[in-house]
């Protein structure tokens, strides 16, 4: 039984998947179930485990962050659907329903907790009962521009050319990016490599199967990293932030009351969202959409294990 309590978050910062690794996984997924297996217990789980507290429990829907997080998961599926030929992926729904009786899923299956809709009613974001779109992030555009160059047989001929490809897609001036500001473990974003055992038990997951999925992701990342003159778009973003002087940082922070989401936009239109958790807070740059109570403090650029964020001192809540 859950004891009534105030919402809790216990941050355990780790690396999120970079846009290049996520795009590579999407390109390799031949079916809906392929994509689901690759992201549900890896990308999806990482955010729950990183925020921690109630968000890492079966009561995670009590945390408002649940909704933008799952909107991002929906966007990953949305992007994959539009990567297909014509409408084929808008009816691509396969796999086994392990929640019910281990039967194969069908488009005619009812939506859980609803007697009004079937799966087929919500497969397309612009038809039937749905009408919405997602904007493509510049981080994903940068990953696509870079991977397309390798796939076309015309790869970058130098690190500077790689930076120029990524920076152009991000809308950055490539002359303002200096990778020398990064430490060795920041040039490629690795992502989490496993889930804690208690998470697997709580979600009825088999550790060996989950570890295999993480291993597949690490193999893809290793393949990307071995490409000539390869640099992760996440590293270029981080280098761009760290290359600016503290007197003219490429971001600004907006303050808000505790009950409002606190967001900001930098001078180059890179959207950011603020996460605060005493005694520190973090800004994730064009990665996963998140929100939090506001803060009354100045931020300083910092990095941890290659993650892209801005460290914020103890916030003052109103």
List strands and helices in order, with pairings.
Layout (H helix, E strand, L loop, with lengths): L18 H10 L3 H20 L14 H17 L13 E2 L5 E2 L33 H14 L7 H12 L26 H6 L4 H19 L7 H11 L19 E3 L5 E7 L2 E6 L14 E5 L2 E6 L6
Antiparallel strand pairs: 1-2, 3-4, 4-5, 5-7, 6-7
Give the strand order, joined by hyphens, for the main sheet: 3-4-5-7-6
Report on the biggest sheet.
5 strands, antiparallel
Count of helices?
8
Class based on secondary structure composition and strand pairing = alpha+beta
Instruction: Give the DSSP E fraction (strand runs of 2 or more residues).
Output: 5-15%
Number of strands: 7
Provide the helix percentage.
25-40%
Strand and helix order: HHHEEHHHHHEEEEE
Radius of gyration: 20 Å
Question: Poorly predicted ranges (pLDDT <50, ≥5 residues)?
Answer: 246-318
- What coarse outline follows from CA principal-axis ratios? globular
For the terminal residues, how far apart are their CA atoms? 32 Å
Give average pLDDT, whole number.
76
């Amino acid at each position: 039984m859950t004891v009534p309590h105030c919402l809790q978050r216990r941050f355990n910062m780790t690396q999120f998947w970079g846009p290049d690794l996520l795009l590579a996984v999407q390109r390799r997924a031949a079916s809906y179930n392929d994509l689901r297996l690759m992201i549900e217990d890896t990308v999806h789980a990482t955010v729950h485990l990183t925020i921690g507290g109630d968000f890492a429990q079966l009561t995670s829907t009590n945390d408002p962050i649940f909704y933008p997080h799952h909107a991002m998961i929906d966007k990953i599926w949305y992007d994959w659907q539009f990567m297909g030929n014509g409408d084929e992926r808008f009816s691509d729904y396969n796999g086994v329903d392990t929640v019910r009786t281990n039967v194969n899923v069908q488009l005619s299956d009812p939506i859980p907790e609803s007697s009004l809709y079937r799966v087929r009613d919500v497969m397309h974001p612009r038809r039937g009962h749905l009408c919405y779109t997602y904007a493509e992030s510049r981080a994903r555009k940068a990953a696509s521009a870079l991977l397309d160059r390798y796939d076309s047989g015309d790869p970058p001929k130098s690190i500077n050319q790689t930076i120029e490809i990524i920076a152009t897609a991000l809308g950055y001036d490539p002359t303002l990016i200096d990778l020398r500001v990064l430490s060795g473990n920041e040039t490629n974003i690795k992502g989490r490599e496993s889930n804690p055992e208690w998470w697997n038990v709580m979600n009825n997951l088999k550790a060996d199967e989950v570890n295999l999925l993480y291993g597949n992701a690490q193999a893809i990342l290793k393949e990307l990293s071995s490409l000539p003159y390869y640099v992760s778009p996440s590293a270029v973003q981080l280098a761009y932030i760290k290359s600016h002087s503290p007197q003219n940082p490429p971001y600004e922070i907006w303050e808000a009351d505790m009950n409002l989401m606190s967001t900001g936009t930098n001078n180059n239109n890179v959207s950011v969202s603020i996460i605060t958790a005493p005694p520190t807070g973090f800004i994730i740059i064009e990665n996963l959409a998140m929100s939090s109570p506001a803060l009354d403090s100045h931020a300083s650029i910092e990095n941890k294990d290659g993650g892209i964020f801005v460290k914020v001192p103890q916030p003052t809540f109103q």
